């Protein structure tokens, strides 16, 4: 098992190494920027790489990290739980080099590690058997970087960082380098066991929602990348960026401060603006103040984010209507649409009362809905007939797979279907509806026109057997077009947050 994990890690590192080199190369090639403006793609790519490399930098995967906290400082330990992985890596590095006698603190993976001194201390602390005192004593940074890499190699760190990368302070490559050293030898005592924190059902649910909202925010294409939702929203800045995306022009950037924010009242100011805009959007925010977000009140943060997500979804659907644009779409409209769709497809027994309907749990309604919007998309051989939870989960997993195959973005987990999480049910239904309306033409509201149109669409689908592949091609084009539009929009808006800072 351990061996297998190691192998996959090496495989991962090799692939990532290639990506990183490519990334660095592209970043240095001005022409590429000129022709493709690939900063968004590259940004995303480097984020994916970071997530991969830093996967073990949390207390769940590496409980020994608790050793970084001196004594029984519970507040600091709590902070450790929410620390972003790259920050965790910095903390880990400083922990070792301080013990080894290095006087400075490393705050980033570029300027601060350029001279290779911190690395010399780190490696002599972690691998004294491979280190010589000359590594630390060398005065020439180039020479030192070379010695550092030689030592790292003895620790089985694949060589994909050059001494030049170290001396030039390439942030991406240095981060990857340190992550790899961590992976090979973290130097923490293995007998330290994390305190047993019993997850209450509330915690489990909160962490699933945290994940969903985090994925959602990161899918919006805002400038900030969210690593840890509860921690990262506390400055208010990310929320302002999201609000500006969903309700363009609503944020007064002049009155906002961009992180890093030193003065606490600036955070409160940002969050107060967040609440103010929320109220303008008619969110339910009784007795909620900006300071609650600054304090990291999870319940209120989740409640706020859900209203944001829901608004954004309803807005997307509303924009698909060709006329009566000013009429709001409601949750009920989505419910009616879904029930109608299933009924039209001939599944007259499948019907849900609400997004809380417990019968949704076995996945039957969603499978019927998916095959109603796109015949043949559901392979009924994959559907489990049984009764136990295992098979229930397989049904739920399959639903998410099929929805994704159609091109719906799903931020939730199979458990959310099994347990009938109404938020998940609403968003999943809405994204299937969005997909279907985009494909089959605008939504005119439930009525004869709509049902006739969808009957026609259905009939069309039944006709040709080869049509599916063609359609998939079209879909891809649409996605690309969408992305291009998104990018164009971003270009336009790019100035605004900076202006305010
Ligand atoms: C890294 O941190 C140092 C301070 O420790 C700072 O002077 C330097 O500008 C930072 N470099 C980058 C690229 O942020
Ligand atoms: C909020 O509610 C008020 C009164 O019901 C309405 O006039 C306004 O348009 C709503 N605003 C939004 C953004 O929905
Ligand atoms: C899986 O879905 C099928 C069809 O929708 C349903 O009949 C069956 O009961 C589900 N299985 C479980 C274990 O819930």
From TrEMBL:
PROSITE patterns: CH (PS50021). InterPro entries: CH_dom, CH_dom_sf, Fimbrin/Plastin. Residues 443-501 are annotated as: Disordered. The chain crosses the membrane at residues 15-36. Keywords: Actin-binding, Calcium, Membrane, Metal-binding, Repeat, Transmembrane, Transmembrane helix. GO terms for biological process: actin filament bundle assembly. Interacts with F-actin. This is Predicted protein.
